[in-house]
Write a structure and sequence with these properties.
This protein is mainly alpha-helical and 108 residues long. It is 45% helix and 7% strand. It has 4 helices and 2 strands. The chain has a two-stranded parallel ribbon. The radius of gyration is 16 Å and the shape is globular.
């Protein structure tokens, strides 16, 4: 374990760098500033869905109730990654996950 946040960032970036050239790693990013942790050679995939689908999925996970603060957070964060540069785009509603998986397997 790292003793400080800066040390943790260095160790994590090294782990990601090693994953690109060795074992594969999937790192799901939910905050834009975490993209800077990725090595340049990482494969970037944007997975997205429309806001109504996301709300319905959260509502299902929360036993049919979507609290207003959660709904507001989803609305605020929706689309925060839309302006980035990605190697692949995956439609989380109509996309073919198996086809994307096959494409990624060919890269490894």
């Amino acid at each position: 374990m790292a003793k400080s946040e800066s040390e943790a960032v260095i160790l994590f970036k090294e782990k990601l760098r090693n994953a690109v050239s060795g074992e594969n790693m999937i790192y799901v990013i939910s905050e834009p500033e975490h993209i800077n942790l990725l090595p340049d050679s990482a494969i970037r995939i944007l997975v997205s869905a429309d806001i109504d689908t996301i709300k319905e999925r959260f509502k299902a996970r929360m036993h049919g109730n979507l609290p207003a603060p959660v709904e507001q957070m989803l609305e605020k964060k929706h689309g925060i990654f839309d302006g980035g540069v990605y190697d692949y785009y995956f439609d989380g509603v109509n996309g073919d996950a198996a086809a994307l998986g096959e494409t990624l397997k060919k890269l490894c």
